[in-house]
Amino acid sequence: MTQKFDVVVIGAGPGGYVAAIKAAQLGLKTACVEKYQGKEGKTALGGTCLNVGCIPSKALLDSSYKYHEAHEGFAIHGITAPNVTIDVKAMVARKDGIVKNLTGGVATLFKANGVTLLEGHGKLLANKQVEVTGLDGKAVVYDAENVILASGSRPVDIPPAPVDQDVIVDSTGALDFQAVPKTLGVIGAGVIGLELGSVWARLGSEVTVLEALDKFLPAADDAVAKEALKILTKQGLKIKLGARVTGSAVKKKQVTVTYTDAEGEQKQVFDKLIVAVGRRPVTTELLASDSGVTLDERGFIFVDDHCTTSVPGVYAIGDVVRGAMLAHKASEEGVMVAERIAGHKAQMNYDLIPSVIYTHPEIAWVGKTEQALKAEGVAVNVGTFPFAASGRAMAANDTAGFVKVIADAKTDRVLGVHVIGPAAAELVQQGAIGMEFGTSAEDLGMMVFSHPTMSEALHEAALAVNGGAIHIANRKKR
Predict the structure, then answer these.
(1) Which residues bind FAD (predicted)?
(2) How many beta carbons lie within 10 A of that of residue 127, not counting itself?
(3) CATH classification (class only), 168-277
(4) Smallest Cα–Cα separation from 364: which of 450, 458, 447?
């Protein structure tokens, strides 16, 4: 007899595992399917984010920044550390330990909440049946009242630079270098390329980033993108815009990359090359031909605002559906879907999903950019405050960047918060909380912020929207 569940989730990434736990907490008999095998040859939960994405990259970013600070930033504090060295293998081993702890933590949460783990490859069949094929090749079919598709994404491959995970690597391979490459090429100046490029640049690599687009960080506010390009270039990243890679050739553990730019065809030799040109949804082998679920022209699963697919009772969340490929977006979609299955009228505010790039300084934003609002014909008032005028930032020797608050000129409602600087992700989240409750710039300006904190920069930027900043000169109104 076929075993039946109220909910079967395919994929145990930040969307899938959260959806499974939430569904179980709501009293639904829940199973979660996962095929990914970790370094120890065992099923590892957490998806790309925990295993080879968000978490391990942040571990390396933090380790590399501590080394960089000891090497470059201690002297100003009166601390001398002339012989600081980096043990890359130990750094990578620490990263692996964090991943192991967190993926094991998800397994513990499954047990605590009564989620059944089904190990193997999950495939949606007709009539909401799920086929799970184990590592031994044996397939078992399960019945489900509801199915949540959360199979995630994988790095995009490009023909001019085929990944071999030795000399030419994707984002996964870039997390496992055992030594600092003398020269490093990065194809793609997006979030992943800038973060991984930053890691190895801090440790001594000569990093060149090749970006096909002529515009740097097009999703970010123009002022933030301009400042980021200036700061990252000063840090040593050679960022070449309008550089389209056309070919690569590996010889004697080096790769020669051919690309075209405004000056014609160029060639450059690197010890390692990271391909970081984006990610694509994992929907191959996920759906039987008669499953009834439809895909769009790019391979994403078609869903409505509540993540419902074309089949009643089948949902899809995270990187396999429209919207930003962000772990926190996937998780909240998982919660929303689980609650809707349980009969609640859960909603999700897609307008206030924060974005973060974990370079140093961090780059983060929520809401709309100034250029997008102007394109929509919305009149705005803008307030900015530089960290160079922040006492807390000065004390920390971390004064690069600024906070920017954008408000509707008529209503004063905050429409966007954009930060490049220390603790940018945390400051933007403060903005997101306020915006969720419909805050005005005046509201933020009237709140009491503790002193001295980085948060005061948000306070001052909000005050500056209406010409009331205290610790910088306000712009004269025309």
Answers:
(1) 58, 122, 319, 325-328
(2) 12
(3) alpha beta
(4) 458
* CA–CA distance, 198 with 185 (Å, rounded to integer): 12
Note whether 4-155+280-350 and 361-465 share their fold: no
Burial bucket for residue 126 (CB in 10 Å: 0-12, 13-18, 19+) = exposed
Question: Is 58 labeled as ligand-binding?
Answer: yes
The pLDDT of residue 477 is above 70:
no
φ and ψ at residue 69, rounded to 5 degrees: -65, -40
- The CATH number of the structural domain formed by 4-155+280-350 is 3.50.50.60
Superfamily for 361-465? FAD/NAD-linked reductase, C-terminal dimerisation domain (3.30.390.30)
Per the CB < 8 A criterion, the answer to whether 301 and 129 are in contact is no
Tell me if 278 is assigned to a ligand binding site: yes
348 annotated to a ligand binding site: no
Q: Are 180 and 310 in contact (CB under 8 A)?
A: no
Q: Is 191 annotated as a binding residue?
A: yes
Catalytic residue among 77, 451, 459, 471: 451
Residue 315 near residue 7, CB atoms below 8 Å: no
Q: What is the pLDDT of residues 190-224, one digit of tens each?
A: 999 999 999 999 999 999 999 999 999 999 999 99
First to last CA, the chain: 77
Q: What is the pTM of this model?
A: 0.97
**Does residue 77 have an active-site annotation?**
no
Tokens for 382? 């803008």
- E-strand spans in 126-216? 129-133, 139-149, 153-155, 168-169, 183-187, 206-211
